[in-house]
Amino acid sequence: MLDTAIRHSAPNSAERSLERPKTHATGASKKAQCGQALERIIEASRHEFMAIGPAAARIDSIAARASLTRQSVYYYYKNKEEIFYDIVVREAHMMVDQFANLDMNSTTPEATIKELLLGLLDNANQAPILSVFVSDQVCFPGSDKRATAIFTNLMQQIAGRLQILLDRGAEQGTLRPGVDAARFLAAACMITSGAKHNRHALQITCGIDVDDEEGMGSWQVFAVDLLMRSIRAAD
After folding, report:
1. Please, which residues have CB within 8 angstroms of residue 147's CB and are 6 or more apart in sequence?
2. Pick the CATH number of 85-235 from 1.10.357.10, 1.10.10.10, 3.40.718.10, 2.40.50.140
3. pLDDT (0 to 100) of residue 136
4. 53-77, pLDDT tens digit by residue?
């Protein structure tokens, strides 16, 4: 497992292994990372940040949601910013693991890109904090600048890998030439994971509930098909 911090990665270095950021947990929390109390703090904080954002979140509220004392939270973390940063690190690890396993060589570029797109909506459930960053960072006023840097560098690495696949597909004649990976990735995030955070508008407009497993599956198929049609040479 890679434990080095995510660094800026140019597109031509995209085939190197995706890199995982270091945790910012305190020494005490490192000794008890698998403990129930720490996991309750993380989960309670995730809900609190999703509900009102890091700026408005309070340690007292996080402690109450986790059914712990305020002192218990401070045993593991110095402040709420440190908690937010650790959540981003954890979710970044999930995304690194997912995208590092993409088959870049033995399958067609089209098949690999489709697999990547299918995983984006899954990330909205598994890594909700990062997926909101994808949709709109304004949702998290006051978020740690280091967390923003992790997200930015992670997306740059994924876009770099995606550009290789798009260019390879264009050379093979299966994908349209000249597709910008960063723009395509941004559009893909908005239409896939972004749908999870605009679920009310989606339900009103077309009657699809992405909180429901069947509804999410239906939207996932539609969204990925639409995105793939936009880059196929034949279309």
Report:
1. 84, 85, 88
2. 1.10.357.10
3. 53
4. 788 889 999 999 999 999 999 999 9
Hey, which CATH number is domain 24-78, 3.20.14, 3.90.1580, 1.10.10, 2.40.128? 1.10.10
Q: Which residues contact 67 (CB under 8 A, 6 or more apart)?
A: 40
User: Kindly report the CA angle at 10 between 127 and 224, in degrees rounded to 5?
Assistant: 45
**How far, in Å, CA of 230 to CA of 235, rounded?**
7
Report residue 232: phi and psi, to 5°.
Answer: -70, 140
Contact 45, 86 (CB under 8 A): no
What does the domain layout of the chain look like in residue ranges? 24-78, 85-235
Bridge-partner residues for 175, per DSSP?
232
Q: Which residues of 55-87 are buried (b: 16+ CB within 10 A; e: fewer)?
A: eebebebbbebbebeeeebebbbeebbbbbbbb
Question: With b meaning 16 or more CB within 10 Å and e meaning fewer, what string describes 201-232?
Answer: ebeeeeebebeeeebbeebbeebbeebeeebe
